[in-house]
Design a protein that fits this description.
The protein has four helices and ten strands. The protein has helices spanning 21-28, 54-64, 89-96, 130-140, and strands at residues 4-6, 12-16, 36-42, 71-76, 82-86, 100-101, 104-111, 116-125, 145-151, 160-168. The relative contact order is 0.22.
């Protein structure tokens, strides 16, 4: 899952943790999060998940997710997606394993905004790789980096740049 994007002059603009999305969700449970939100959408994009008998949907999901009782909210969005909310990271991972609902193939996606925090670092040397920056920050602080984005204008080669760091957990908690 390590994603990297090169600017053409050797400067990496993007780094994503090699840890899988499911493993990150399990780790976020140690950070005392309040809620994980996950969307299910039809793999065939223009189509929505059918809004059929709610009891049938409830029964099928209950049969596929062992920790179903940990789901605090389950609702349809205006654009036909199914939204789940849970405070249990194991239940969230079980939702991510769903591949079909009511004989419809589905994609799952985590909404990271409620379980991650972002901050901006100034004057990061562009000759330092984002992997090195990630390792250095994680070793000297008590947090786990999900991704780093470096801001460099196309066609330029500055010596320093801004870096947006996304970490697991929210700022208002004690780390």
């Amino acid at each position: 899952m390590a994603n990297k994007m090169d600017t053409g002059n050797g400067n990496m603009k993007y780094f994503r943790s090699p840890t899988s999305e499911k493993e990150l969700l399990l780790r976020v449970g140690k950070r005392k999060i309040t809620e994980v939100n996950i969307f299910l959408e039809n793999k065939q994009k223009p189509s929505a998940i059918p809004k059929t008998n709610p009891q049938l949907l409830y029964t099928e999901i209950k049969g596929k997710i062992p920790r179903f009782d940990q789901i605090s909210k389950m609702s349809f969005t205006r654009n036909g997606k199914l939204r789940f909310a849970t405070s249990d990271p194991v239940c969230a991972v079980q939702i991510l394993y769903l591949e079909q609902i009511l004989n419809v193939s589905v994609n799952t996606s985590v909404i990271w905004e409620g379980i991650t925090s972002r901050f901006l670092l100034y004057e990061i040397p562009t000759n330092e790789s984002l992997e090195e920056l990630s390792t250095e920050l994680q070793s000297s602080n008590n947090f786990e980096i999900v991704e780093i984005r470096r801001f460099i204008k196309s066609g330029t080669s500055p010596e320093v740049s801004l870096a947006l760091i996304t970490i697991l957990g929210t700022v208002c908690q004690k780390m």
